[in-house]
Amino acid sequence: MDGVGIAIAGSAMAAFLAGIGSAIGIGIVGQQAAGVLSEDPEKFGSLFILVVLPGTQGFYGFLASMLAMGKITPNLTMIDGWRILFACLPIAIAGFVSAIHQGKVCAAGANLVAKRADQAMKGVMYAVMVETYAVLGLIITIFLLAKV
Which of helix, strand or coil describes residue 1? Predict the structure, then answer.
């Protein structure tokens, strides 16, 4: 595999690992939210925020992938290919793991909404704390790609 292939692998990892994590996270909270809505459809607005939150990691991975693709040239060296791949790992891994855990936190928030709808923002705040680590992964990836 040449430098271009290695860099493309890194770019793909950023997109698909963060995307898979988001799909799993949204699936976790979506199932819980659907159960709550079956009892009280009026809570859709509060639950929607909780359901979409784990999806942000997929967007972060997509952004990082596009930035990495912008670094790829036909004559990319193998060393630079590895640099791009490793630069993509922070968002790939942080996005994958944090999206799944954020989905679990959001599912707990959906349980909170089921019992006390007026407290929905407390569930969102807990979920945002998990989001912090995905944002940090994206920032590190951006800084590392800037150095390639």
Answer: coil
The whole-angstrom separation of Cα 88 and Cα 15 is: 9
Q: Tell me which residue of 42, 48, 78, 68 sits closest to 141, measured CA to CA.
A: 68
Are the C-beta atoms of residues 34 and 111 closer than 8 Å to each other?
no
Express each pLDDT in 24-53 by its tens digit.
999 999 999 999 999 999 999 999 999 999
Q: How far is CA 118 from the centre of its chain?
A: 27
- In this structure, what CATH number is given to the domain that contains residue 27? 1.20.120.610
Q: How many CB atoms lie within 10 A of CB 63?
A: 17
Contact 32, 107 (CB under 8 A): yes
Query: Structurally, how many domains does the chain consist of?
Result: 1
Task: Take residue 58 and report the two structure tokens written for it.
Answer: 């997929």
Q: pLDDT digits over 71-130, tens only?
A: 999 999 999 999 999 999 999 999 999 999 999 999 999 999 999 989 999 999 999 999
The pTM for the full model equals 0.92
